[in-house]
Amino acid sequence: MLVLGIESTCDETACAVVREGTHILSNIVASQIDLHKEYGGVVPELACRRHIDLIMPVLQQALQQAQVSMAEIDLIAVAHGPGLIGALLIGLNTAKALAFAHQKPFIGINHIEAHLYAALMSHGEPVSFPCLGVVLSGGHTALVLMKEIGVYQLIGQTVDDAIGEAFDKVAKMLGLPYPGGPQIERLARAGKTGVYTFKAGQVKGRPFDFSFSGLKTAVLYTLKGPKGQQPLENLSMQEACNLAAAFQQAALEDVVKKTLAAADRHQVRTILFGGGVTNNQRLRELFNQANPHQTYIWPSVGLSLDNAAMIAGLGYHRYAKQGAGDPLSLEPLVRIPFV
């Protein structure tokens, strides 16, 4: 089965062709970083306009690279949430139009679920369930017990900022360009973690939930100084590196601690990771240091950020399990809970 995947949940326009859920024939991603970096984050209206311009050229490029035509496509899979409503509508309506015009089934995919499937695609070998899924991205932070593909139990999630969002906001405080995650990681390598003391938030009675808003605010108050009037220009490069290192260490240690505690509670040996923050090398070091005997499955670089191959791959399994496509009345969803 050949599946065409379409992804437009935020600021990447992506299309891919995947065979049998795992064999990637093409995976085209058009990034919008150049458009949004001057604003320090994604501007939804600008993102939607760029999606409109890019969706058909990216689709044609994906088909050409895969050396297939729409007539050969068996299924169209599209991310229908969660994400920006306008961006979702563009991808979803494109999929519906293609499905209607070419008489193909189409199926809506949970973008967050696809991030976890991306690790399975990268691994290339069968995985024994249950597993613990860890989503770490600019828009999402969650721990999910994966009983099998498509059967999940939400264990914990952020109650405020996603971890990637916190990285971006701290980077902006330090005058660093968007996206901020790689910039913070770069500075942190030259910094000392012990100069500043930061701590991620804890949610009373919910040990596996995350809270990064207070951590971000602590960095802001430190930057402003004791009287709140310290100019950013007075911050030395070494102080910026130390702040980045302390912030990164506090955020990542919180993820490691709660993830391993959840794995122990639910007696799982395999942990799957999804989302752009999983590219952080310090995060991987901390997991290996904390428990080198645990099995960690990380997505490849090309599948960690938003992409359509993970949408197409998961679409293959969803369609096989469901036995049919979704109706053309399927609506985009800004939020999709794990059930």
How far apart lie the N and C ends?
27 Å
Q: How confident is the prediction overall: mean pLDDT?
A: 93
Low-confidence stretches: none
Strands of the widest sheet, in order across it, are: 3-2-1-4-5
State which percent range the strand residues make up.
15-25%
Q: SS-based structural class? A: alpha/beta
Count every helix, treating DSSP H or I runs of 4 or more residues as helices: 11
Helical content class: 40-55%
Major sheet characteristics: 5 strands, mixed
Q: Would you list the SSEs in sequence order as H and E?
A: EEEHHEHEHEEEHHHHEHEHH
Task: Round the Cα radius of gyration to an integer and report it.
Answer: 20 Å
Q: What is the 3D form?
A: globular
Q: How many beta-strand runs?
A: 10
